[in-house]
Each structure stands twice: as C-alpha cells, then as structure tokens.
Amino acid sequence: MPNELEATEFSRRWVAAWNARDVAAVLAHFHDDVVFSSPLAAQLFPETGGVVRGKDALRKYWDEGLKRLPGLHFTVEAVYAGIDTVVINYRNHRGQLVNEVLVFDGGLVREGHATYLRQDA
C-alpha cells in the first residue's frame, strides 16, 4: 500500500511524464491488463463506453488524446494516499480540476479512473 511519501513521489513522476508527453513513461506504472475509465475516453472512443481495457488500448487512447490536445499540461494540486489507492488532484491545461483515482496491485496500477469536477455543482 502506498504511504503518503510514496504517493507524493509517484505523483511527481506521473505529472513529469505527462508534461513531457511521454506516454511510455506514464504506462510504465500500469499493469498490462489495466482497466481505466474516463469521460474523455467515452468522447474519443465511444465504442468503449469510457472504459479502456489493457495497456495497449490505454496507449492508443492517450496517444490520441495528446494528438488532439497539443497544449495538455497538468499541475498537481493535492495527493491523497489510501489503502492501495492514490488520488492525484490536478488542474489541467484548461484550468479544470480533475482527480485521477489509481488502484495499485503489486506496485503497479491495476485500475484507474479520471474524474472531473462538475461545473454546474
């Protein structure tokens, strides 16, 4: 289970890889059979229903996202450590608050969920 220090260090590596647009470096932290959900995945690949299964499919999704969002940049606002879970609260290139909820298994992410703050809440 990640402790507070490990969660913070993971978030530093995670955001550095994203801001460098290095999908391979981000994916290095994920299991081959990862399951990842995201409203953006539902927009880019409607046939997935927003759920991407497997590292190869996740690579395809993130590569497409980077292609469509050339200004993508994240700033970490807060990091939360739970039982086998890390939540990275960050601000994206549009200034929106987003949470990445990551569930770990054996030191790698087995499951992830991108969640967005509702603007009308």
From TrEMBL:
Domain of life: Bacteria
SUPFAM superfamilies recorded: NTF2-like (SSF54427)
InterPro entries: NTF2-like_dom_sf, SnoaL-like
Every SnoaL-like domain range: 12-93
Protein name: Nuclear transport factor 2 family protein
Species of the source: Catellatospora aurea
